Amino acid sequence: MPTSLRALRFPRRFLADESGAVAIIVALCLTMLIGFLALGVDLSSLYARQKTLQTRADLAAVSAVSHLADAAEDRARATVTGNGLEATAMTGIGYARFTRDAALPAADRLAERSQGDPDVNAATVSLSEEAPLFFARTFLAQDSTRLSATATAARFDFAAFSLGSRLASVHDGLLNALLGSVLGSSVDLDVLDYNALADADVDLLSFLDALALRADLEVADYSEILDADVGLPAIAGALLDTGAIAGSTTVLTTVLDSLTDATLGVSRLIAIEGEDVDVQVEDILPRIQVSALDILFSALEVITADESRIVTADLDLGIDGLISTGLQLAIGEREGQSGWITLGERGATVHTAQTRLKLDLDLGTALVADLLPSLDLLSVRLPLYVEIASATATLSALHCSATGPDDPAASFDTESGLVSVFLGEFTPPAFSDQSTPLDPDSPAFTPAELLAVDVDLDLLGLPLTELLNLLGLGIGDIRAVVAAKAHVQVAEALTDSQDFTWSQVGQQASYSSGDLLGSSLGSLIDGLDVSVSVETGSISLSLINRVVNFVLNALSGVVTPLLSTLIAPEDGSLFPGVDPILDSLLEALGIRIAGADLTLDGVNCGAVMLVR
C-alpha cells in the first residue's frame, strides 16, 4: 500500500478510535465532584457553626431573661464567653414585653421595652462571628464569612399578694358590728366562733370551685368566675363547702340563715393583672392559702364600702376607768380593678380603701380626780376622729434566680397616704360623706365638750351657798364646761420599699414610718383650742364673779395636763392612754397608721421559654 494511502487512513482510524474516552470523562466529572465536595464541606461547616452560634444565642437570651431585674447584660455576656466566644461576639441586647395571646399575629406579640419598664418579661440577644472558609476560598475572594444569630427568651413570673385586709387579731365586738351592719340585724357571736375561721386555711382553687357551685355559675373557666357578681351567702356557703373549717361554723351559718341580699364582684376579692397570669391561673390558685376569716372580712369590707354603710359599735375593751367606747367606722371605695388579693407580674398594683373612724371615749372621773381635787367632776369625754388615707403596694421585682431561704423573693414599692387626727365634733353629714375629706377649717368642725364640772360655791372657804339661801337668792347649780378642738396632720404621703425573702413567702409584713400615732397625738395636745364656760342658775350676782374667775383659771390651767394624762400617761397611771386603745382597734381592723399590712401569698417562677 502506498505510503500516501496509509497516511490518509490514519486520521480516519484515529478519529474512529473510542478507546480511553472514559478516562477523559472521569477526569472532567472528578473535577466537578471535587468542587461540589469542597462546597459541601464549607456549607456543612457553616451550617454547624450557625447552629452552634444559634444555640449560644439561645443560652445567652435565657441567661439574660433570668436576671432581668439586675444584671441581664452581664449574665448574657458571661454565657457568651463561657461558651467559647469573645465578649465582642455579643452585638446587642434588647428588652421587650411578650404576650402569649393566640389571637394576636405573631409579629404583634413582642413589644419593645426598656429594661426598667415594669412589664418587661423578655430579652433578645444578638451574636455574630467570623466563620472560616476552606475550599470555597478558591472560588471567592475572601477567607471567611460573617454569621449572625438572634434569640428571644421570655419568662412569666408573678406573685400573689394582698394589702391591708389581714386581721392581726380578732375582736368579736368589732366583727359583730361589721357583720351586723351588712346583715341588717344584731349579731352576738363569740370570739371562738371567729377564731375557728381565722385558723382555717383555704386554697383559692377550692374556694372558687365551691363558689361556682354555690352561686349556680355556668362558666367555662376561672376568669368567668372572677368576673361574676355573687351574694354574701354564696361566699359563706363556699367557705363551708371547702371542708377546711374544723371548728365552729356559727359565723358562716349566721350569714347563710340571714335574708341579706348584699352582693359583690369576685374580682374585688381576687384580681388578675396580665394576660400571661390569666393563662396559668389554674396552676396558681391551689398554691395560695388564705384564712377563711380574711375572705369573709374582706367581702364585708367591700360591701360596706360599696353601700356607704357606717359601722357603729359600743365596744367593751376591758380597761379600768373606761366606761364606754363608741366606735363609728367608714370604709372608702377601693380603686378600680384592685382586688384584696392580686395575682400579677412585675408592675401589678393593689390598693386599699380610705378609712375614717370616730372614737368616743367616756372615761371614769376617778382617773383624773387628783388633778381637780376642789371640783366635783361630772363627766370626762374624749371624742377623736382619725382619717387614714389609702395605701398602695406595687410589685417592683421578682427574684427567681436564687431560692435560698434568706435570698430575696419579691420586692414592692409602697405608698401610704396622709393621716389626720381630730379632737372635736363633726356635725352630720361630714363624717359619713366619704367624697369630701374632713376639713379642720369647716364650720362643721366644732369644739367638743371634754369636761363637765359641778362647782361648789363654798370652795373659797366662805359659806356663800348658805348665805345666799338665807337671803332667798339661791342660784341653783353652777356647771362649768371645758370644750376644745384640735387637728394635726401626721405627714405627707410616704413612699418606701418592702422586701420579702423566700422564707417569708406566705407571711405578713407591716410597713409604716414608725410611731406616727404617738407623735400625732402629742402634736394634737400642743394645738388645742380650749374654751371654758360657766353656767349659773336664773340669778347672777357679782358676788360669784370671784368664784367664776377662779373656776375659769383653774380649768384653763388643767386642760393640757389632763389630756396628757388621758392620751399618753406616764408609767403607773391607772389609764393606759388613747394610743394603745387606737392601736388595738386598728390592729383588729387590719389597718396601719400611715402604713399597711402587706402579705406575699405566693410566688410563681415560671419556666423560661424561647419565643423567637
% residues in beta strands: 25-35%
Cα end-to-end separation: 86 Å
Q: Globular, elongated, flat, extended or rod-shaped: what is the shape?
A: elongated
> Helical percent range?
25-40%
* Helix/strand structural class: alpha+beta
Average residue pLDDT? 80
The count of helical stretches stands at 16
pLDDT under 50 segments (min length 5)?
471-476
Task: Please characterize this protein's 3D structure.
The chain has two domains: 21-155, no CATH class; 159-610, no CATH class. The termini are far apart. 37% of the residues are buried. The chain is of the alpha+beta class and 612 residues long. The strands form seven sheets. Strands 11, 12, 15, 16, 19, 22, 23 and 26 form an eight-stranded antiparallel β-sheet that branches. The protein has a five-stranded antiparallel β-sheet with strand order 2-1-3-4-28, covered by helices on one side. A five-stranded mixed β-sheet has the order 9-13-5-27-25. A hairpin with a 6-residue loop joins strand 11 (310-315) and strand 12 (322-331). Helix 14 runs antiparallel to helix 15 (545-567).
